[in-house]
Amino acid sequence: MNNNEQEKLQRLLKKYLTGELSPEEEAYVAEWYDNLPDQLPASQAPLPALESQKRENWEAINTKLQQVSQPQLTELEINLKRFTIGRHQTRWLGVAASILLLIGIALYPGRLWREAPVALLEKQNNLKKVERISFSDGSIVWLEPGSRIQYPAKFTGASRDVFLNGKAFFSVARDKQHPFRVYGGAVEVKVLGTSFGVNFKKTEQVAEVLVRTGKVAVTSTDKSVTDYLPFIKSAKKTVRLQLNEKVSFNAAHHTALKQKINKEYWEKQLPEAPLIFTDNSLAEVIRTLEDQHRVSIKLENSRLKNCSLTAYFHGQPLPVKLDMICKSIGATYHAEEDKYLILGEGCKE
Q: Which is nearest to 206 in space by CA: 188, 183, 187?
């Protein structure tokens, strides 16, 4: 169903409430209602938060219907005797509920779309430099100046959901049982464990997603009538990305452009300032390297935190820096994509 047909249906349903439909228009509405699916396909199932909101909407609709007096119901039922195209005599009740839902969507779209009902922390980066935020699952986000992110203090439930407006880079801890989702104004990004950059410009309804490691699924999230009326075919797009690929979404024009990224691109995005350490703890050194290279570096042994380091780095690739650090403290490291693990006995306190 295209936009013109959606507008026509909304107009007819409003006329339906006032009894102004012609016989031809009544037949159109009846055919629409007869074609409603009994159940939304699993592949198009809405988010739990949206499903909960729909249940609330239906309860409100049902309450209003129960408040209608019996004489009014009798009169309306008489006027709708012509609606006998194949469903039971209470079809008018379902049509009336559908009308109320559609009009509610048209009048109060913001109230029908709510974010997850869990308490969310919010961080607005008002500085002139990138800010780092660590999540409860070990994932890290580097938030660019002027950007805002909302996230729970602790991830619970089937997925790990955050809400972003602006630009950020994510290093996501792997968890196959709980996908990580980033919601923006135009798209949803879904990953299991990877690293990627996103740039969501909510006011312009454009979004860009760039993948450095792993795989990412990017889906448009046009919050239109198609999200609430499943019988209307959805125009959502899903683009799957691998390392060194990007996609640019434009919600206003319903376009998605997928492109390759030069592997040198990521190094050019990193700050080039030299790093100077003078008897700093290994924990401080690791955090600085994580921020500079946008990666996750873990210590296998807690005693490694007792080690200290004096060093000067400028321009070396991360593997070279880690080799130099490990040799100085008698350790080794293991790398898997953008995740690094330093192994060793550590140092005495």
A: 187
